[in-house]
Automatic annotation (TrEMBL):
Membrane topology: Multi-pass membrane protein
Subcellular localization(s) per the UniProt record: Cell membrane
Official protein name in the record: MFS transporter
Organism taxonomic ancestry: Bacteria, Bacillati, Actinomycetota, Actinomycetes, Kitasatosporales
Main localization of the protein described in the UniProt heading: membrane
Residue ranges of domain Major facilitator superfamily (MFS) profile in the record: 15-482
Pfam family, one: MFS_1
Bilayer-spanning residue ranges: 15-37, 52-70, 82-100, 106-129, 141-162, 168-190, 202-222, 228-251, 272-295, 307-324, 336-355, 361-384, 458-479
Length: 502
């Protein structure tokens, strides 16, 4: 690709504000509903069997359609896709806030996922093509990364405040002002470079195979949670997912304009980044869920206090992202930020395996959260920068979408997988300790002890998965400093774009 010098957009920093605002909305929506779910379940009469679908409907639509959304933004124009995604997301949120029954709420969550899948890759790839100077880019993506990384915990806090003081419906309505402000701002200040568009046709077979394959994979883990790993439906879904995704890879290697050009994922560095980010998402999403239940159910925290308990983790995540990751990623090889970062977060997780019924927040939970935030923030910045390192601008949308896909699919899998492990460990502990438990108080105590045993077992698994992410980062990520000068073959440094998603 010939080197070109595109003049810097004078309004790029204003654009960053609105793009980051949209990303914050999408990210916090993944967790804000978690805390509001018990209230919504009671209000709408949602059955215990269906309540998980309020979370899963969003994850399935979002994770399954992200690659499609990434390619649409490359073909149709990122600004147009971004604004369309915002307006659709606001409409779906209004529909969810007005829900009068289970079906209406689940439909709204699925629609939020569909428009989120358009919005998220468009936001990331807009930044990829607007910030073309290495130091500015590191600063811009440090800010964007901190906002996106902390968005999940911000969702927990807002979810707690709305549920406790207003009504669960506000966890949906809050998206409308976010979306309106971001859409109006984007319309006014974003100017997308014309040469970054990809004019090729949409790969329809690829869209169908990728979407069905990813949905089958996430749904298989969800069914394993409810039906068990050996159930016919669970095994059938895993087989279907494998067949569909293999067929997708075959189709992509043969069509002229693939949905996911295999060159994007077969690069050793990007492959290592996507794998390590997916594993980190499996560990972190599951952990958020267990810690929320532990604090609210076992320790009796209010929804607001539960959200506030996560604040120190956001603070160290922002510090790790902006003060360590963004500052060092132009000087230190990415593997030596990603590997130690994930390892530091693993140590934090191991500390959490020691929780019991009376663990002090200050001495037992806070140190673990601080380490996890610092480690994940440090690892994420160089990881995101490498996710689109050396990618041609016309593939920026789909490369950005792969970051989102690995994290969203990883998060959905992590929630289901670790929940299954926790539930099995809880049942086994309760059964083995049931002898001689006669009084109601003793039974209640055993129930709490069994639940905590389930959480700690799952957290051990999460720590192991995160350690594997660290190992993959060190072994497979071999590129040097991803913010640097022109790379081989005339590939300009503007292709080495750091991107952050949740």
């Amino acid at each position: 690709m010939p080197e070109t010098t595109t003049p810097l957009d004078p309004r790029r920093w204003k654009a960053l504000i609105f793009i980051a605002l949209a990303q914050l909305m999408v990210v916090l929506d993944a967790t804000i509903v978690n805390i509001a779910l018990p209230s919504a379940q009671t209000d709408l009469g949602i059955s215990d069997g269906n309540r998980q679908w309020v979370i899963t409907a969003y994850a399935l639509a979002f994770g399954g359609l992200l690659l499609f959304g990434g390619r649409v933004s490359d073909l149709w124009g990122r600004k147009r896709t971004f604004v369309t995604g915002l307006i659709g997301f606001a409409a779906a949120s209004a529909f969810g806030g007005a829900a009068v029954n289970t079906g209406m709420l689940l439909a709204a969550r699925a629609l939020q996922g569909v428009f989120g899948a358009l919005l998220a890759p468009a936001a990331l790839s807009l930044l990829a093509v607007m910030f073309t100077e290495a130091k500015e880019r590191a600063k811009a993506f440090g800010i964007f990364g901190a906002i996106a990384g902390g968005g999940g915990a911000v969702g927990l806090i807002l979810g707690g405040v709305f549920t406790e003081y207003l009504n669960w419906r506000w966890t949906f309505f809050v998206n409308i002002p976010f979306a309106v402000v971001a859409a109006a701002g984007a319309f006014a200040v974003i100017r997308e470079p014309a040469e970054s568009r990809n004019p090729s046709k949409l790969d329809v077979p690829g869209v169908i195979l990728a979407t069905l394959g990813l949905v089958s994979l996430v749904y298989a883990f969800t069914r394993a949670e409810s039906d068990g790993w050996a159930a016919g439906a669970t095994i059938g879904l895993f087989i279907a997912a494998a067949v569909l995704l293999i067929a997708f890879a075959v189709v992509e290697s043969r069509v002229k304009a693939p949905l996911l050009p295999l060159r994007v994922v077969t690069d050793r560095n990007r492959g290592g980044v996507y794998a390590s980010l997916g594993l980190a998402a499996i560990a972190m999403f599951g952990l958020f869920l267990f810690l929320t239940y532990y604090l609210q159910v076992t320790r009796g925290y209010t929804p607001v206090n539960t959200g506030l308990a996560f604040l120190p983790m956001i603070a160290t995540m922002i510090a790790g992202s902006t003060q360590i990751g963004a500052r060092l990623m132009t000087r230190v090889p990415a593997r030596w930020l990603m590997g130690p970062g994930f390892l530091l977060a693993t140590i934090g997780m191991v500390l959490l395996t020691r929780i019991d019924l009376n663990t002090s927040y200050a001495t037992g939970i806070l140190p673990a959260l601080l380490l996890m935030g610092l480690g994940m923030g440090t690892a994420f910045m160089p990881a995101m920068s490498l996710a689109t390192h050396g990618v041609q601008p016309r593939d920026a949308g789909v490369a950005s979408a792969m970051v989102n896909t690995s994290q969203q699919v990883g998060g959905a899998i992590g929630t289901a997988l670790l929940n299954t492990i926790a539930a099995s460990a809880t049942t086994a502990y309760a059964t083995s300790h049931a002898a001689g438990v006669a009084t109601k108080e003793a039974q209640q105590l055993l129930m709490f002890e069994s639940a905590v045993h389930g959480y700690t077992t799952a957290i051990w698994w999460a720590a192991g998965i995160l350690a594997l992410a660290a190992a993959i980062a060190v072994v497979f990520v071999s590129a040097g400093r991803p913010g640097g000068a022109v790379t081989g073959g005339g590939q300009a440094a503007e292709d080495a774009v750091p991107v952050m998603a949740h």
